[in-house]
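User:
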Amino acid sequence: MVLYLHKDPPTIQGQVPLPASKSLSNRVLLIRALAPESFPIHHLAEAEDTQRMLQLLNSSDSDEEVFDAGPAGTTFRFLTAWLAFRPGQQILTGSPRMKQRPIGALVDALRQLGAQIEYLEREGYPPLRIGEAHYSGQYRIPVRADVSSQFISALLLIAPTLPQGLEITLEGSLVSRSYLRMTLALMHHFGVPHQWKGTTIAVPHATYVPKPYTVEGDWSAASYYFAMAALSETTEMELLHLQPYSFQGDAIVAQLAQQFGVRHEFDTHVLKVYKDTRASLAPFFEHDFIDCPDIAQTLAVMCAATGLQGMCTGLQTLQIKETDRIAALQKELAKIGVTFAQLPPRFSKKTGKIWHMIDGKAQLPASPIFDTYEDHRMAMAFAPLALLGRIGIRQPEVVGKSYPSFWAHLQDLGFEIEEVP
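Assistant: Predicted structure:
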């Protein structure tokens, strides 16, 4: 199916009740599963990934032997750690794409702790057979930090339940540091302390303290509305449920959008977003997305739509997401005459970082159709281009992974939407 959408006139006015953060929701769900007693979670994410995790955690007391995480990466990684120290034997599997996403660094770490895990198909990748662990007594382990911060978060979340706690030494360049801060802050909220010195994070044996928790709004979801504001002629919009001082690394989008003439201000728990029509674009855009990779697609499209040349680094985790997001961006931006290319090695000599450049200004052919590659963020990142003309989004249902109400919220803002089988 293709969803065609257009916004004419290209103005934005209205209020958006943003969904809850999927990242926070999934972490709190696992903490609740590890706590001695249950506790209420308010404003839990409606995301399919979160609902799947809730279902799988709730099925743990049944005779369920096969846990299917589907395409949910966070769910798969968190459940790998959680199941590793539970009684019995389970099989943890996922979608075809999930079977292409590496899990070896997490499995290696869990095996050092005594977990009994074997690969059922390809070495280093799902699906897994997870048997009953025989705790090794080891509590100091090295973990690769340059693949996915979710591996480390999974280990940290189960750390206080281990007899001696856990001390992790991070090896390699740490990616998505903000997500580790989020994990540790949540653990602290529920009564578990930690020490982070240099490349070592230590968590003692402790008990999670059950107490009610309300999940804040999702800054990743907010990024798409900042993009709409950047592409609009005028914007007067209110985004609900966000917190001004957030653990979410994607909250930086509010600052980055200022380079595109988008301003914001908090009024209690309402974020007001507006287009500053007198502002001029920055001469170019440059950012390191190592702590906020989930908004890289959004900013790439913003650069393409406005013609602002972009220089991006910190994109190394994008190739192991729901799709190879770098390849997907290259293909889809090319449809509107914009290049997204890795720069030659000589540009990395001083920084040691790999850089990509976004170059060109979007020229929309008649109703271009953008492919989403089963990636929710591809669909939502390209949707703001509807302010420039009529566009099509293939497989629009993929937004359910994190934001099922996305298209309905766009309709509430006045977008014209038509489904074509």
